[in-house]
Each structure stands twice: as C-alpha cells, then as structure tokens.
Amino acid sequence: MTIEDIQNEIIDEFSMFDDWEERYQYMIDLGKELPLIDEQYKTENNIIKGCQSKVWVHAEMTDDKIAFTADSDAIITKGIIAILIRAFSNQHPKDIIDADTSFIDKIGLKEHLSPTRANGLVSMVKQLKMYAIAYQTQLN
Amino acid sequence: MFNVQDIRKDFPILSRKVNGKPLAYFDNAATSQTPQQVIDAIVDYYANYNANIHRGVHTLSQEATDLYEQARQKIQAHFNAKFSHEIILTSGATHSINLVANGFSSLLKKGDDIIVSALEHHSNIVPWQMLCERTGANLKVIPMNEDGELVMSVFDNLLSKNTKLVFLNHISNALGTINPIEYVIEKAHQVGSAVLVDGAQACPHIKPDVQALDVDFYVASAHKMCGPTGVGMLYGKEAWLNKLPPYQGGGEMIAEVTFEKTTYADLPHKFEAGTPNIAGGIVFGAAIDYMNNIGFDAIAAYEKELLDYATQKLLAIDGLKIYGTSKNKTSVISFNLENIHPYDVGTILDKLGIAVRTGHHCAQPIMDYYGIPGTIRASLAFYNTKEEIDTLVEGVKKAKMMLS
Ligand SMILES: Cc1ncc(COP(=O)(O)O)c(C=O)c1O
C-alpha cells in the first residue's frame, strides 16, 4: 500500500469514533501495540528533542525500504508515533520525503500538530523525514 | 467577607469554555488570571494617558509619569520598602535576578562563595552559574530532603567568611514549600553575606515586609499576582543598589553624557534604561490594589482550605503520590500517578477543560532528586473553588482509567 492508502485507511478507522474519548482510547491502545525499538537503540543520540516525554526513533533500510521502530515513556505520544510509523514504515525513502501529514488533522488530532506543542509530533515527522533523506542519498 | 462566587465574577476568563467544557484553571503558579479591574486599567492607560515618561514638557507625558511613579509608590508601600527609589521596575523576576547577578560580577572574585538552594527555578540558577563562570566564584547548594524542604544544618556548614551572596526562593514553584528565609537571612548576615529572595511564587499568596525581613534583594513578577505579563520588580536596599553598577546602558539611566564620560542617573533610574513597560508598571499597581482589597489574610485562609481539601481528595486516589509534603507549603500540589507519564495525564485533563502544568517546571534539579521526568502540578488560587477541585479529582480518575 502507498502512504496515501494507509493514511486513508487510518482516517476511515478514526471516522468510526464519535468523540475525543474514543479517539484517545484507540490511540492509547495503538501505543500499547507499538513495535518497540530494540533496547540498544534507546540512546541519547536517538532521542528526539522538543518533546516533554522521551521519544526514541530508529530507522533501518532493507530492499530500498525504511523500517522504523520507536518508543516513548508517555503512552499518548507512543500512540501518535504508532500512527505515524504505520503510515511511513516499509516505504521507499523518496515517498516518505514527499509524504503529506495533513491526515493527522483529519483524524481529529489537529491539536497535536501545533509546532509549539511540547509533544514533539512536528519534530517527530521531521526526524522521520530526515532519516528518509539520509537513506535517499545512499540510494543515489 | 470573602465570597469566592463574587470574586469569580471579576475574572471574565473563568467563564470561558475549553474543549467544550467549563474551564478549570489550575496553572496559577505559571501565570495568574486577570480581573476586570486590571483589564480596565490597561484600557484606561491607552485610552487616556499614553505618552512617554520622564522626558516630556507636555501634559500627557506628565500625567503618565505621575501614574508610573504612583505605581512605584504603591509597590513600595505593599512591600514596605523604606524608599520608593529602592523599587526598580523590571520586565519580571528573571530580569530582576539577572540585574543583580550582573552587578555582582564586579563585586566577586575567585575563591568567593555564593550559595543557592536545591529548590530553585532555572531563572534563579542559570544567571548565577554564568556569574561564577565570569568571576571564578564557587556555587554551593543547600540540599533538599524527601519532603521537599531545605536542609538547614547543611546550610549552616556552607556559610563562611567567603560567602558573599545567598539566593533562594521564598516559595518553591515546583513543590510549594515555604522556605525559612528569616533564618537564612539572619545566618547569612552574621557572616557578612547578602541575600536575594526570589518572591515570584510567594507574592500571589503572602505580603512580604522587606524591612522586617531585613532582606537585601527581593524580586517579583506582576503576572503571577493578577497583573500583566512582562513587568516585575526588584527591591534592593539603597546601599546595595548604590554599590551595584548599572545593568544596561541607554536613555533614562543617565545624568549627563559626553563622549569622555557619562554620569549615571540616581536610583531608581540608573537601572531603568530605555522606555519601560509604562502601561505594565501602572497596571502592576492596579493589580496590587486588587489583591489588597481582597486581603492577603483572607486569601491565605481560603487557599489553605482549598489545599487541604484538594490534598485529601487526591490522596484518596490509589497510586497517586504527592511531591512536596512540607507542613509549610502554599496551595501547590505536584503529583504523579504510578507508572503513568505526567504528560499523558495533562493531555487528558486538557480535553476535560482542566488546565494544569506538566513537566519539570523549570526546576530540573528537584525532578532529578526524586528520579522522575516531571510531575503534574495543580496550583490553586483564591478564585478556585471546591467544585473545580472535584472536577480535577474526577479528571485524574478518568485519566488513570484511560491510561492504565
Ligand atoms: C520561583 C520563580 N522564580 C522566577 C520565575 C520567573 O518569572 P518570570 O518568568 O516572570 O521572569 C518563576 C516563574 O515561573 C518562578 O516560579
């Protein structure tokens, strides 16, 4: 599936919910299922700055596709990462670089998109794209 | 008579909704809300008196200057300073601390000691670390205990004839602990050291008397006392303020300027370079009037009632731990739920219209002491109600349920 397909799938899932509580509960549950990062990658270097909670992201490329793993000490943050990773993982670097993130708005989590919010979603997106840029230069 | 429902009518923001729910504002230690009387004073200034001060020949400028200086006198009276020129109007507590730290650069030498408490806000740590880097002075720390109180026996041993300055907050922003500043001031003076007290968190709750305290410097921010942001004050004893060099150069702070030599203006203008926050200063006076009209005794009594009520209700939640358990504390409750990140709780509370602060509260050393990433902080003000505390308690229970 393309990133866009996955994003539409996520939008569909979230459209079933009537209120914030259901949305958040779903996100919290997603957080609990997040593919955890290998302990060896939970280093200072892999921490994303700009979050009130700690967020670690690790990226690996096989067969021209990037797989992301991540973790956070806050569960809602973990849920947001889980959504992002689901959309961006196992994709070609170029597609990740070009991907749009407005789907976050469409699933009713717009408040997390503010660059000044201390959850660091924006820094997270930036970090995922940075990894993609780095791997893209390896492919060129 | 103190009637919280009447008082709440003064604060338009308290009737607003957040995320579809009535706002319950518990982030008062970060910034307090603004009563209509204070909002009116801002409007009145810009509608009727706006002009630059201390330099005009015209009537408006004279009127604005008079209002600004009257505000200074109000602040002087409130803190019981001996002279109005001992009150320096600044942009806030941070600016006030930096002004003193900068001044001490020329008074300290290698081998001198300055002493800080473990309970400080970063604003009262970083400027002094910078000072130590510039001068070679040593920074020593009064440690804290599990209750979030300073360990005075260690403080006694840190003091020596090398001690030049002790600085600590009157009340801790992260935990609410009221520090024994009377003791610190007396002991520090015995070895000839000056004392700076950061009153940013104390002034919303109590009315300090700087002469009775015999404190050398005392700082405050208006925005924590129902006033506007970007204005605050530094109280300094006249002798100390005369000893410190000016902080910034510019207009207002000079007596005469030639390219050979500039002579500085007298206090307080020596420390007030440039056009100040004129409206802010005037309105700071209005905020002090507002709080005094309610009365600090009434405020303290009511807030104590709220604190006891909230503490008891919150502690009834299984797995909830309160940090800062001194018997001497103001209405600040810093807490965590077992195995749940404070940020998650804060996010859920926000969805319920409840405003708290989460994180390290600019007091990272305290969080390191407890080995936690941060806390959820509910800081109560005299316009909060028991019903709002019930909302908070229900919100915390809900967050716990969703997040466990
Ligand atoms: C104890 C303490 N000191 C200093 C400050 C800084 O105040 P301001 O940001 O108004 O300069 C604060 C603000 O949170 C504080 O709580």
UniProtKB/TrEMBL annotation, chain A:
PANTHER family assigned to the protein according to its UniProt record, in alphabetical order: SUFE-LIKE PROTEIN 2, CHLOROPLASTIC, SULFUR ACCEPTOR PROTEIN CSDE
Ranges of residues in domain Fe-S metabolism associated: 12-130
Top-level division of the source organism's lineage: Bacteria
Family statement: Belongs to the SufE family.
Protein name according to UniProt: SufE family protein
Database matches in InterPro entries: Fe-S_metab-assoc_dom (IPR003808)
From TrEMBL, chain B:
Known EC number: 2.8.1.7
Gene3D superfamilies documented for this protein: Aspartate Aminotransferase, domain 1 (3.90.1150.10), Type I PLP-dependent aspartate aminotransferase-like (Major domain) (3.40.640.10)
Key words of the record: Pyridoxal phosphate, Transferase
Segments forming domain Aminotransferase class V: 25-392
Xref: InterPro entries: Aminotrans_V_dom (IPR000192), Aminotrans_V_PyrdxlP_BS (IPR020578), Cys_dSase_SufS (IPR010970), Cysteine_dSase (IPR016454), PyrdxlP-dep_Trfase (IPR015424), PyrdxlP-dep_Trfase_major (IPR015421), PyrdxlP-dep_Trfase_small (IPR015422)
Chemical reaction(s) catalysed: (sulfur carrier)-H + L-cysteine = (sulfur carrier)-SH + L-alanine
Cofactor list: pyridoxal 5'-phosphate
Top enzyme class: transferase
Protein family (similarity comment): Belongs to the class-V pyridoxal-phosphate-dependent aminotransferase family. Csd subfamily.
Function text: Catalyzes the removal of elemental sulfur and selenium atoms from L-cysteine, L-cystine, L-selenocysteine, and L-selenocystine to produce L-alanine.
Protein name as catalogued: Cysteine desulfurase
Organism: Flavivirga algicola
